[in-house]
Amino acid sequence: MKKFVPLALVIASLGLLAGCPSKPPEQPPPPPAQTTDTNAVDNSNATTDETATQGPSGELLSKRIVYFDFDSADIRGDSQSVVAAHARYLAGAPTQKVRLEGHADERGSREYNIGLGERRAQAVRRALLLQGVAEVQLTTVSYGEERPAVAGSDEQAYAANRRVEIVYLK
Amino acid sequence: MSDRMKKYVISLFLAALGVAGPACAQLTLTITQGVTAPIPIAVVPFSRAVPADGGLNVAQVIERDLQGSGRFKLMDRNDMINKPTSAAEVDAASWKQMRNDYVVVGRLTAQPDGQVRIDAELVNVLNGQRIFGPSSTAQPANLRGAAHRISDALFEKITGVKGAFSTRIAYVSVDGKPPTQRYELYVADADGANRKKVMSSPLPIMSPSWSPDGEWLAYVSFERRVSTVFVQHLKSAKKIAVSARAGINGAPSYSPDGKKLALTLSGSNGNLDIYLLDLASQQLTRLTDDQAIDTEAVFAPDGSTIYFTSDRSGNPQVYRLTLGSTERPRRVTFQGAYNARPRISPDGKQLALLTQIEGSYRIAVQDLVSGGVTVLSKGRQEESPSFAPNGAMLIFAGRQGSQGVLQTVSIDGQIAARLDADAGEVREPVWGPFLP
Predict the structure, then answer these.
(1) B127 CB-contact burial (10 Å; exposed 0-12 / middle 13-18 / buried 19+)
(2) For chain B: N or C, fewer Cβ within 10 A?
(3) For residues A99 and A141, is the Cβ–Cβ distance under 8 A?
């Protein structure tokens, strides 16, 4: 049984009362410690994917995204020909590797969505294997809902984000 | 000008100050809902210790803590005629006339060792009695924390509930729009102030988890382009990759003794399961083995029960397993088609979770004894609940329009507040432990 308080309390924005401390609130980056990793605080070297390459061209082969329906890891009907085209190409180029990056739309819990993204990547992987691609040519990764292609909370954005991206590697 | 009108004007004035003020990019706390009968209390400006106190307005920190709890109504200091700094100076009758139930007064004194000591006193206005005098001492740089500890003591004395004002939160901040976003992991005081960057990356950061001693954060980072579980020591920034196995490394969660992490691995066949990692020996114990997505494992405070999300029944639901037992995991949630992301209260009796209800994703709490479920939030897209260490509040991720914000709600649903970042979005809050 919730009751609502007068609007006065609602407007009481407390952070504004504090003001900013005279000293900068953030500490300077600490000196590198004895650690198994460098760049403990910042990682600015991974913005571009140095491992990716342009890959083949062609009407279907230039399409690198496979789409899925809500809560499903079944490759959508309209994406099957894209998968088939890449399978044909890869089967004929046994040294060419691809990375299958699985994604989910933003609804629901994040780590579970990592699982959904992985399921989708695995579905594409299986389809490629069935169509003659070798295991060694395929790796999967899931980003869950963390790297949407399109911002937004409508059905269009959701549909655009439920996807697997086929990334050709050098 | 009526009392209510005065509050509007002051709030608007302060809002204007906030807009014009420096962008130190902190979180701003806004109460969105409080109890109907907040306790009226006056916190009188404390006497200063110049220059040792660095200009910190200790009474204001205490005021904000108490007001932010949603249970108190703070007297406007502009209405204070007298400004006593000790209980002996308090004329209870005049404070009673101003409609206060309690008065807090205090003094700061510089110590010979360079520290600053805060001495507060709580007076019951209704009977004029001094109730008690909490004190706290700290280095000038940590004076804010000492003020929060005074708030904790006052809060507990008046309400009977242990205060959590001197605790910290961790959260993820995201700047920019897809496909180019920047991710940062922060630690801040529980009121959102004093934030410190833990790490940043152009690739996603997820699932922060506090060690029980508050010294480490475990988290998932994609900085190597694949998911890796790291633990990072907050004071030294020492960072260790504790799981960089092939496939998915996710959802790390510390055991109550701090020695193990429950986590999610998929191996190269892509099937997510729960494992236990001994941090010292790196020994892995597998806890689930099935075709379903099993993830988001957390320990109950007893250290031997683990709750996790699994879609083995078709849709995500919360399950429980006992370490060392050969029994199959038992399903725990039965209401609704989607229940995920379990978190257990400090007393082990309540389960916070993400539930789908009427097409929206909301935060609910399930009583683990009776099974009763209470939905605590009202939005369309909420997630990531985390209990405060006093079990009285939850923090979670919500939306303000399309922006990610953090929200808090009391366990009975009566008090709600929002923490907005002035830049970017914030998500995945996790409430840290009581500090020694």
Answers:
(1) exposed
(2) C
(3) yes
Edge-to-edge strands, sheet with B168-175: B196-201, B182-189, B168-175, B425-431
Q: Is the pLDDT of residue A46 over 50?
A: no
Determine the Cα–Cα distance for residues B123 and B21; give it in Å rounded to an integer.
35
**Contact B199/A146, CB-based, under 8 Å?**
no
Residues with Cβ within 8 Å of B374's Cβ and at least 6 positions away in sequence, in order, are B364, B365, B366, B413
In angstroms, the CA B109 to CA B112 distance is 10
Residue B131 near residue B123, CB atoms below 8 Å:
yes
pLDDT in tens, B5-51: 544 444 444 443 333 333 334 688 888 888 878 999 999 999 999 99
What ipTM is given for this predicted complex?
0.88
What chain A holds in terms of domains, given with CATH numbers, is: 65-168 (3.30.1330.60)
**Residue B16 belongs to some domain of the structure:** no
**B239 shares a domain with B328:** yes
Q: Tell me, what CATH number does B201's domain have?
A: 2.120.10.30
Is B23 part of any domain?
Answer: no
**B200 with B320, same domain?**
yes
- Report yes or no on B211 lying in a domain: yes
Is B17 touching A (CB cutoff 8 A)? yes
Same domain, B67 and B98: yes
- B136 and B194 fall within a common domain: no
pTM for this structure? 0.86
Q: Which residues of A touch B206 (CB under 8 A)?
A: 110-111, 114, 144, 146
B59 lies in the same domain as B144: yes
Non-local (6+) Cβ contacts of A94 within 8 A are A134, A137
Four-CA torsion B309, B315, B321, B325, nearest 10 degrees: -140
Both B222 and B145 in one domain: the answer is no
B82: Cα separation from own chain's centroid: 36
**Could you tell me the residue range of the domain that residue B214 belongs to?**
168-431
**CB-nearest partner of A18 from B193, B198, B225:** B193
Question: Between A27, A112, A144, which is nearest B340 by CB?
Answer: A112
- The mean of the pLDDT values for chain A is 80
Q: What angle do CA B224, B227, B229 make, to 5 degrees?
A: 100
**A142: its two tokens:** 């899931």
Question: Residue B300 forms beta bridges with which residues?
Answer: none
Residue A28 has pLDDT above 70, yes or no: no
Q: Does the distance separating the beta carbons of B361 and A153 come in below 8 Å?
A: no
Q: For residues B330 and B368, what is the distance between their CA atoms, to the nearest angstrom? A: 13
Note whether B28 contacts A147, CB cutoff 8 Å. Answer: no
- In a domain, residue B4? The reply is no
- Give chain A's radius of gyration (CA, Å): 23
CATH number for the domain that contains residue B143: 3.40.50.10070
Domain end among B113, B139, B159:
B159
